Amino acid sequence: MPKKTIISCAITGAIHTPTMSPYLPVHPDTIAQQAIDAANAGAAILHLHARNPDNGAPSVDPVHFEDILPRIRAATSAVVNITTGGSPTMTVAQRLPPALTYSPEMCSMNMGSLNFALHPLADRYSEWKEPWEEDYLRASEGNIFRNTFADIRMIAEKLGGAPHNMKFEHECYDVGHIYNLKFCKDQGYFDGPIFLQFVMGVLGGIAAELDNLMFLKQTADKLLGQGYEWSVIGAGAQQMRMAAVGAQMGGHVRVGLEDSLYISRGELATSNAQQVEKIVRILREQGNEPATPDEARQILGLKGADKVNF
C-alpha cells in the first residue's frame, strides 16, 4: 500500500493575536469546535495551545485546557498533540504543566534556542482589540526562545518515559536543530520512530524556500537514516506550497491558523477546517492519501487514546 500522509492542524498557537483575524479561535468553545471540525475535515493530529478566554492571550494554565480536551476526545478520534512551546515569552518550566497534567499521546519539543521574532507584524495594525497585543509583538524583537540541551533532556525525562510515554513532534527551525536532535538521540533521550517537524518561515529561523526544504531533508537523511518520519510547516504565505511539495517528497504536512491566517493571497481563512479541506484536495489531486488518526498512531508508534488523562 502507498504510504499515507499525516495531516496535522495547529489550531491557534501563540503567534497571532485577536486583532489579526476574527476567525482565530481564542475561547475554549471556539478552539474546541474548530479542532473538531478540522479533524472531521481530515486532520489526523490536532496541535493544541490554549488562550486566556478573558483577553485571548496565549496561556499554559491547565485550567484553560480543561474545557477543550474532553470535548475533542468525545467528538473525534484525532491524536491530540499538546504544546510544550507555550509562547516565546515563557520559561521552560512554565510551558510544561498542560502536557504533565493531561498526558496526551504526543507533545511538541523544540530542538534548539532561537531568536523568535514577531515584531514586524505590529506595524500592520493601528488599532488593537486587546491592550496586550501590541506590546507582546513589539517586545519579541528581544526574545530568545530558550531550548537548551538541558531543557531538552529534562522534557524528555519528564514526558517521554513512564508514566506519560509521550512521543514528540521534534520542531526544527533551522538545520542546526537537526544536529541537536541527532546528538540527543545518540544520548538515548528518545525512542524511535522519530517524528521531525521542519518549521520554516519564522523570523529567526530558516526561510520557507524549496532549496532549504531539500537541504533540511538531505541533512536529516544523513544524520538519522531511515528511522524517522518528517513533516513540514510553511509559515505564512508559503503554507500550502511547502505542504504540497513536502508530501510529494514523502513527508507529512501541517496546516492551521497557528501557522497562517490565510486560505489564499489576501483572503483570510474562515476556519482551520477550511485549510484542512484545501490541503486534502491538494494531496489527493497529486496522489497522496491522507492518513486516518489510527494510521497516524501506527506510523508514529503512539501509546493510544485510551492512555491519556482527559
Largest sheet: 8 strands, parallel, barrel
State the end-to-end distance: 34 Å
Q: In total, how many domains does the architecture comprise?
A: 1
Would you tell me the structural class of the helices and strands? Answer: alpha/beta
Q: Compute the gyration radius: what is it?
A: 18 Å
Q: Identify the quaternary structure here.
A: single chain
Say which CATH homologous superfamily is assigned: Aldolase class I
CATH architecture title: Alpha-Beta Barrel
Poorly predicted segments: none
InterPro entries: Aldolase_TIM, BKACE
Cofactor: Zn(2+)
Protein name: 3-keto-5-aminohexanoate cleavage protein
Pfam families: BKACE (PF05853)
How would the blueprint of this fold be written?
Blueprint: E1 7-10, H1 28-41, E2 45-48, E3 50-51, E4 58-59, H2 69-75, E5 79-82, H3 92-95, H4 97-102, E6 106-110, H5 133-138, H6 149-160, E7 167-172, H7 175-186, E8 194-200, H8 210-224, E9 228-234, H9 239-248, E10 252-255, E11 262-264, E12 267-268, H10 272-285, H11 293-300
Parallel strand pairs: 1-2, 1-10, 2-5, 5-6, 6-7, 7-8, 8-9, 9-10
Antiparallel strand pairs: 3-4, 11-12
Helix pairs in contact: 1-2, 1-10, 7-8, 9-10
Give a written overview of the molecule.
With 310 residues, the chain is of the alpha/beta class. The two termini are 34 Å apart. 35% of the residues lie in helices and 16% in strands. The protein has one domain: TIM Barrel (Alpha-Beta Barrel). The model has no long low-confidence stretch (mean pLDDT 96). The radius of gyration is 18 Å and the shape is globular. A hairpin with a 2-residue loop joins strand 11 (262-264) and strand 12 (267-268). The strands form three sheets. An eight-stranded parallel β-barrel has the order 1-2-5-6-7-8-9-10, surrounded by eight helices. It is built from eleven helices and twelve strands. InterPro entries: Aldolase_TIM, BKACE. Its cofactor is Zn(2+). Keywords: Metal-binding, Transferase, Zinc. Pfam families: BKACE (PF05853). GO terms for molecular function: 3-keto-5-aminohexanoate cleavage activity; metal ion binding.
